[in-house]
């Protein structure tokens, strides 16, 4: 299933044949789901950058990918008001060896001092409900982010 924006304010969902329309879900829970999806997207992108570093020999490209991976990873943990809930390094690394948190703090400091600050959300995420044509006992086919 894939949500595609085909024009301003026009979205198409492939993979849900019984939908008749989409309605935006606008609640605190939907906003939190959207932010978690953006975190997942950022972490996946950081991982993709790191994987790509291993496949290129060009030093300029490797450096750019390294910086991009650090920024994408750490923006999930920042104090920016643009995303909530934020990931908690303290909670994530609590059961890990102390060196894991030291590594996190090293990269966080590296980003803060030498790479970038990210106070703006560059991506957006909508939560919508696919409403069926009314021929079923239920109306909501699926909630998608």
Question: How does this structure look, described?
Answer:
The protein is α+β, with helices and mostly antiparallel strands. The protein has 2 domains: 44 residues, no CATH class; 98 residues, no CATH class. 44% of the residues lie in helices and 19% in strands. The protein contains 4 helices and 5 strands, in the order E-E-E-H-H-H-H-E-E. The strands form 2 sheets. The protein has a 3-stranded antiparallel sheet with strand order 3-4-5, with no helix packed on it. A hairpin with a 7-residue loop joins strand 4 and strand 5. Helix 1 runs antiparallel to helix 2 and helix 2 crosses helix 4. It is elongated. The model has no long low-confidence stretch (mean pLDDT 87).
Q: Structural class, judged by helices and strands?
A: alpha+beta
Count of domains: 2
Main beta-sheet strand count, sense and barrel state: 3 strands, antiparallel
**Gap from first CA to last CA:** 11 Å
Shape estimate? elongated
How many helices does DSSP assign?
A: 4
Structure summary, number of beta strands = 5
Beta-strand content estimate: 15-25%
Mean pLDDT: 87
Instruction: Please give the order of strands in the largest beta sheet.
Output: 3-4-5
**Order of SSEs:** EEEHHHHEE
Helix content: 40-55%
Low-confidence stretches: none
Cα-based radius of gyration, to the nearest Å: 19 Å
């Amino acid at each position: 299933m894939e949500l595609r924006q085909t024009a301003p304010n026009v979205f198409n969902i492939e993979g849900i044949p019984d939908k008749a329309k989409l309605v935006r879900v606008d609640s605190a829970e939907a906003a939190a789901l959207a932010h978690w999806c953006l975190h997942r997207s950022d972490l996946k992108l950081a991982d993709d950058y790191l994987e790509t570093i291993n496949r290129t020999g060009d030093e300029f490209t490797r450096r750019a990918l390294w910086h991009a991976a650090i920024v994408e990873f750490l923006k999930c943990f920042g104090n920016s008001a643009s995303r909530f809930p934020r990931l908690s390094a303290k909670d994530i690394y609590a059961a890990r060896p102390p060196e894991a948190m030291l590594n996190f703090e090293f990269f966080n400091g590296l980003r803060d001092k030498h790479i970038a600050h990210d106070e703006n959300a560059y991506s957006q995420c909508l939560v919508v409900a696919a409403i069926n044509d009314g021929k079923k006992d239920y109306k909501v086919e699926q909630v998608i982010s």
